[in-house]
Amino acid sequence: MSAPLVVNTRRGVCWTRRTVTEGGIALYAPVAVRTCPEFVMATLAELAAQGITGSADVLPVPVDPVAAGRGLDLLALMDERAASRVSPVLAGVLDKAEKLRVENGRLRDRIAELEALTPAEIQTCRVCGAGYTYGQPCATCVFRKRMAAERGAGGA
Fold first, then answer.
1. In terms of CB atoms within 10 Å, which of 22, 23, 120, 141 comes out highest?
2. What is the pLDDT of residues 65-122, one digit of tens each?
3. Is residue 154 one of the residues assigned to a domain?
4. Distance (Å, rounded) from C-alpha 105 to C-alpha 108?
5. What range defines the domain where residue 33 resides?
6. Do 121 and 137 touch, CB atoms closer than 8 A?
7. How far apart are CA 133 and CA 88, in angstroms?
């Protein structure tokens, strides 16, 4: 079994495999450290003693921005008969995808707007409808509870 390429420890440090010894032991150094002598590097067993929270055997390949801009022209790959049937369906799917993308952006903007709001100083109690100071209990509800408790204790 080969050693993972990247290891994350419980302390939040990301370690990358830098080299392998002649004996086949993988040596790791923190990502933030550009150059590290071998005698300072950690083995997988030492990292396991710290607590491994995750590891990866491969890293994602960056997307070529030029290639990402080009879409695969499926209609050009099809014959005329198949393209004439698929074209309206594909257009509908692309239209729906664009509408969903716009809606997603609108909803993200609305969420950001709502998260930025601060509550008003005076709130309306949902129980009795009286006004109360934000962060404090409703004085009217507290008073009514005390009165009910007093009436219950006085009658016993």
1. 141
2. 555 555 556 656 667 777 677 778 777 888 898 899 999 999 999 998 888 888 888 9
3. no
4. 5
5. 6-56
6. no
7. 58
**What distance in Å separates the CA atoms of residue 72 and residue 93, rounded to the nearest whole number?**
15
Tell whether 156 is covered by a domain.
Answer: no
- Taking only Cα atoms into account, the Rg of the chain, rounded to an integer number of angstroms, comes to 32
pLDDT in tens, 118-153: 888 899 999 999 999 988 999 999 999 999 999 987
CB atoms within 10 A of CB 9: 21
CA dihedral 83, 86, 87, 93 (to 10 degrees): -150
Provide the 10 A C-beta neighbour count for residue 126: 8
- Residue 7 near residue 28 (C-beta atoms within 8 A): yes
Q: Residue 16: what residue type?
A: T
Q: How remote is the C-alpha of 46 from its chain's centroid?
A: 30
Q: What is the pTM of this model?
A: 0.39
Longest dimension (CA), the chain: 91
Q: How far apart are CA 61 and CA 46, in angstroms?
A: 29
Question: Taking the chain, what is the end-to-end CA distance rounded to the nearest angstrom?
Answer: 78
